[in-house]
User: Fold this.
Amino acid sequence: MGSHIWNRKMLVALFVLLAAALTLFVIVPRAIVPEPDTNSYLIYEGQVSRAIFSDKQLRSRRAGLPRLPHHVTFETGGGSVDVYIVHHAGEDPEGSVSRMLEMTEDLKNGIAPTEFVAHGQGIKGTLLLNSWPYGKSQYLALIHAQQSTEVTLTVHYGP
Assistant:
């Protein structure tokens, strides 16, 4: 009868160790959110600025999952801006650069992108990116200003 109690204690201890290992190696790394990336852009009247951003890999001893952008905030120092977030294919450098330049010229001429993930307008805003598919890794922000202004763009990452 004494060994039966001992086996039960060993099973409980094993279960506690397994739960601690699961928490340490699976749950905690997913809960750590990286610091947001903040950049400022000076945009002249009628011009378009571009910013490319992608997922972020946390530095750790173990290879963790990449953290995808969760939302983007923008704030201007003056006039209103239009911010468009579109998918950016980084695999084909020549094609993606020509597409990026084409979208920039179209936006300068008043033609907004037809396929965008998020759009914001004004002097301050938040663009939620919850609908982004997991497979995409690079994104392009197009910022169009009607008058000269400085725009601060902050990319926040999710778990």
About this structure: DSSP finds two helices and eight strands in the chain. The first helix runs from residue 2 to 31.
